[in-house]
TrEMBL record:
GO terms for biological process: chromosome segregation; intracellular signal transduction. InterPro entries: Kinase-like_dom_sf, Prot_kinase_dom, Protein_kinase_ATP_BS, Ser/Thr_kinase_AS. This is Protein kinase domain-containing protein. One of its GO terms (cellular component) is nucleus. ATP binds at K434. Residues 68-83 have a biased composition (Acidic residues). The lineage of its organism: Eukaryota, Viridiplantae, Streptophyta, Embryophyta, Tracheophyta. SMART domains: S_TKc. It comes from Rhynchospora breviuscula.
Length: 683
């Protein structure tokens, strides 16, 4: 208890450093207290000098004495009036205690306020901590909880922590502690308030930001749904427009194609009148088709006939002149006056010769014209066939295949296929649709064979991407007996039609075509999976609208497997192909031929020869069957060049290399591609 008083006093002295007498008083009091406590075990009256009655009187109750003992205030000259002093002092202490409690209560209020302010901050911090420590959630939460409990312990003592003693008095020691703690808090209040103001401002601005963000989110959502609706409308509109567009485009294409069809038929009629037509000839029960020449050819032929007659008449006249001249020379003439002088004979003969020369020129002109007519006739016959095939086709009614390809006019008909010009309504470009039809009369086995063959061709062709190879875009089934391959459309004529129109090409033109064919072949031989085309011929060389040469039709192509030896792979489809263009090894019946890219080198050599000289070097006028029967190609050991037209030695040399009879000596595609004639370089 004495220690408490000392503590209270020292706390008081600390809190009131302006009282300089306080340490001295404290020392005195300590000393007196020490004396009192020691005399308390003896008679107090002796110690205090009180009357004897008080000596025999029982000692005062300890509680009161204790109260007196607790009185700390003293001075050196108080000794005589000690009791009075203690009473006064007790009153002062009580007053001080009351002040302290009031101050503490005030401090508690301030602290509580601070705690109230701190708590949200603390909670926010805790939640921030929580967020930060999410991966180790358990640990983070426990630490933050610890932090919060500590703060509340320090700043917010509950009623139980007010340390009220058993007699209802507040524990003074505890109060002093609290005061010591609260004092610095009081000093920080301003800072706290400032901080709180800042935090409140921050909260307000964050709330404002949040409000704005919410507003923005609402706006965005509104905009999103609006755009979504617009997009939906647009898509619907686009779909409608697309359908309309497709309808308009296909209607336009159909009307153009119909007009083209009409024009084609009208031209045929006109040309037929001029060049000829197919008539029917009946021989017994046999009805066969025959060609009847048109008026222009008839006129031409009659001109030629009359020229021939004139020529023959002049020849006859010349003969008789010569006869007369020789008889006159022999002196057989009876009438000297009627005799013709030598000079006249010479003159007459010269006239005849001159007339004959002019007839020959005329005749040559007519013959050239007739050749031209023949070419026109050939074109007319092909066009007639095309129109007839178109009229007989079941795809001639402008169908849209696979919801995409609008079929227009027939380009031509092959062995088992019809090729239509078509319009791709998705890519908006022209394509060629090749319709492979299975004959309904075929056996199931034959159908399966055909499908296997076509699929093989399709699988090879679809992997080929090169400017000099016709692209294969798409394949799909049309119906049970038909499937379609969609090819790059080549609007130019094929080389076969070109050579039929102009059998001899200028060397420059022939060279650029063969160079492009070899570029395509080099591509086929540089891939990891090498390919032998095996059916190179003018009909399989197409031209696009700007004249780029493109190789097509991979129906007979062979894939060269990796394990094939240097001599080549076995030819399993002997007999297939177009014989004018195949090399001798393909006709060897004594063993299964081994073939390589050298087959295509031979075919290219034949085509270059044909372009330059207007005919094929071997079996030009022969049928396929005759070529086989007469072993024409097996005997084609040496190529001969006509004197006309004049062709460069470099071109002839290249042809010779390509048409090397011995397969082993013939260069392959990659080797021949190094020939200077096939390389364009600035001189
Ligand atoms: N991609 C194409 N672009 C333009 N016309 C083409 C295209 N493909 C083929 N043709 C033309 O279509 C016609 C028929 O071609 P197709 O390949 O079916 O016949 P073919 O080669 O004469 O016969 P086969 O394939 O039986 O030997 C030919 O006149 C050809 O020029």
């Amino acid at each position: 208890m004495a220690d408490d008083i000392v503590l209270q006093l020292s706390a008081k002295s600390n809190s009131n450093p302006s009282d300089p007498s306080l340490p001295a008083k404290l020392a005195k009091l300590e000393a007196r207290m020490a004396g009192k406590s020691s005399s308390s075990s003896n008679s107090p009256s002796v110690q205090t000098g009180w009357p004897s009655s008080s000596v025999i009187a029982p000692p005062p109750p300890p509680v009161k004495f204790m109260e007196q003992e607790e009185l700390p205030e003293s001075s050196s000259d108080d000794d005589d009036n000690g009791e009075e002093f203690l009473i006064q002092h007790n009153k002062r202490i009580k007053l001080q205690e009351n002040d302290t409690v009031r101050a503490l209560q005030q401090s508690e209020t301030v602290v509580e306020e601070k705690v109230k302010v701190l708590e949200p901050v603390d909670t926010r911090q805790n939640s921030e901590d929580l967020k930060r420590k999410k991966p180790g959630r358990g640990r983070g939460r426990s630490s933050s909880c610890r932090g919060r409990s500590k703060t509340s312990d320090q700043t917010k003592p509950g009623p139980s922590s007010l340390h009220v003693s058993s007699n209802g008095q507040m524990d003074k020691h505890y109060l002093m502690e609290q005061m010591a703690k609260v004092a610095p808090a009081n000093n920080d209040t301003a800072n706290f308030q400032e901080e709180v103001t800042l935090l409140r401002g921050r909260v307000a601005s964050l709330e404002e930001e949040l409000r704005k963000s919410r507003q923005e989110k609402d706006d965005c959502q509104r905009l999103y749904s609006q755009l979504e609706k617009e997009l939906k409308d647009y898509k619907e509109h686009d779909q409608q427009m697309k359908t309309k567009r497709i309808k308009i485009v296909s209607d336009l294409l159909i009307s153009v194609s119909k007009a083209e069809r009409q024009e084609a038929r009208m031209r045929i009629r006109q040309e037929s009148f001029r060049l000829g037509n197919v008539g029917v000839m009946r021989a017994g029960t046999l009805i066969s088709e025959v060609w009847e020449d048109g008026q222009a050819i008839k006129d031409l032929n009659s001109h030629l006939k009359s020229l021939l007659e004139t020529k023959e008449a002049i020849e006859r006249h010349r003969k008789s002149l010569r006869k007369r001249q020789s008889s006159e020379n022999r002196g057989d003439g009876s009438d000297a006056e009627a005799s013709t002088s030598e000079e006249d004979f010479l003159l007459q003969d010269e006239i005849c010769k001159s007339r004959l020369a002019s007839i020959k020129r005329e005749e040559e002109n007519y013959l050239r014209e007739r050749d031209r007519y023949e070419l026109e006739k050939g074109r007319l016959i092909r066009e007639m066939k095309r129109v007839r095939d178109e009229d007989g086709s079941r795809f001639n009614n402008f169908q849209i295949l696979n919801h995409r390809y609008a079929l227009l006019n027939l380009l031509g008909k092959g062995g088992f296929s019809e090729v239509y010009k078509a319009f791709d309504l998705v890519e908006y470009k022209y394509v060629a649709c090749k319709l492979h039809g299975l004959n309904a009369q075929w056996s199931e086995e034959k159908k399966q064979n055909y499908i296997r063959h076509a699929l093989r061709e399709n699988n090879i062709h679809k992997t080929l991407v090169h400017p000099n190879i016709v692209r294969l875009w798409d394949t799909f089934e049309v119906d049970h007996n038909t499937f379609c391959t969609v090819l790059e459309y080549c609007s130019g004529k094929d080389l076969d039609a070109t050579l039929k129109a102009t059998p001899v090409l200028p060397e420059k033109e022939a060279r650029i075509i063969i160079v492009q064919i070899f570029q395509g072949l080099v591509y086929l031989n540089k891939r990891s999976q090498r390919i032998i085309h095996y059916d190179l011929k003018p009909g399989n060389v197409l031209f696009d609208e700007v004249g780029v040469t493109k190789v097509t039709d991979f129906g007979l192509s062979k894939i060269v497997e990796d394990d094939v030896g240097s001599q080549g792979m076995e030819l399993t489809s002997q007999g297939a192909g177009t014989y004018w263009y195949l090399p001798p090894e393909c006709f060897d019946l004594s063993k299964t031929p081994l073939i390589s890219s050298k087959v295509d080198v031979w075919s290219a050599g034949i085509m270059l020869y044909q372009m330059l000289f207007g005919k094929r070097p071997f079996g030009h006028d022969q049928t396929q069957e005759r070529i086989l029967r007469e072993d024409t190609i097996i005997n084609a050991r040496r190529v001969e060049f006509p004197s006309k037209p004049v062709v460069s030695n470099e071109a002839k040399e290249l042809i010779r290399k390509c048409l090397t009879y011995n397969q082993a000596e013939r260069p392959d595609v990659l080797t021949i591609a190094q020939d200077p004639y096939l390389i364009y370089s600035k001189k």
